[in-house]
Amino acid sequence: MGYDIERFVGYVNEGLLCSICRDVLEDPLQAPCEHAFCTACIHGWLVHHSNCPEDRQMIDVSLLRPLYRYMKNDLNRLQLHCKNREYGCEMVCSLESIDRHERECEYSQIPCSNAGCTVQIERRNLDGHLAVCEYRSRECPNGCGYTILSAEDTQHNCVAELRTELELLRSEMICRVEEAKHEMESRLDSQRRHMVQKESILQNEIEELKSQMSRMMSDVRSLMAAERQHQQELEQAELEKREL
Predict the structure, then answer these.
(1) Contact call for residues 45 and 67 (beta carbons, < 8 A)
(2) Where is the RING-type domain (predicted)?
């Protein structure tokens, strides 16, 4: 939707009006047929139609372009009243700067910043409202350190609040101790399983080494027996040689 034409001071050129909502162009786009529209208006129109609402020529969203520069300049120079005029703001400024003004306007209706408060208040009166708002908070004057709402002043009990806080802290501490305990037990179980696994691997390696050692000793004994046999054969051959 565009800017309400009733807000503008003086004459507004017909070419600066949206062809759909008939208000002054807001965030304008232009079709190839040179008819101009508010971005929101033309996008909404093209959801259900495929032509220009003025001359019925076929258009597509990809064909829409920004407004001509001279038209954009004319649009930005238009003078209009602040939207908060009904609340007392008398500011008149250019369309180009109206958004910046309205973001800072002292007559703008803004929500109270206190949690739970639903009051909408003029920006210029916000400080006064915050001073008396029933949802305003402050630190307990008795020194317990709690932040309390004004509506809770008569119900606030420092001892009871501190006792409750102490119970919460105790419960939290117990939970943390239990969590730490479970975590340590889990780590110990994991390390225990790892050690058992390593022990099993080492035991298997020891058994394998024993088996290899046994085979080596058997081979050594076989070699020694073969050596003795060979020696005996040599001695026998020597005796036969001497006899000959």
Answers:
(1) no
(2) 18-56
pTM (predicted TM-score): 0.52
pLDDT per residue as tens digits for the range 17-74: 998 999 999 999 999 999 999 999 999 999 999 999 999 999 989 999 999 999 999 9
What structural domains does the chain harbor?
Answer: 5-104 (3.30.40.10), 109-148 (no CATH)
The helix/strand/coil state of 11 is coil
Rounded CA-CA distance 192/198 in Å is 10
Which of 16, 19, 23, 5 has its CA nearest to residue 49? Answer: 19
Residue type, 120: Q
Q: What is the tens place of the pLDDT at every residue in 144-198?
A: 656 655 555 556 566 666 777 788 889 999 999 999 999 999 999 989 999 989 9
| DSSP structure string for 112-179 | -SSTT---EEEGGGHHHHHHH-TT-EEE-TTSS--EEEGGGGGG--HHHHHHHHHHHHHHHHHHHHHH
Q: Using alpha carbons only, what angle is made at residue 236 by residues 231 and 240, rounded to the nearest 5 degrees?
A: 150
Q: Vertex 154, ends 148 and 155: CA angle to 5°?
A: 70
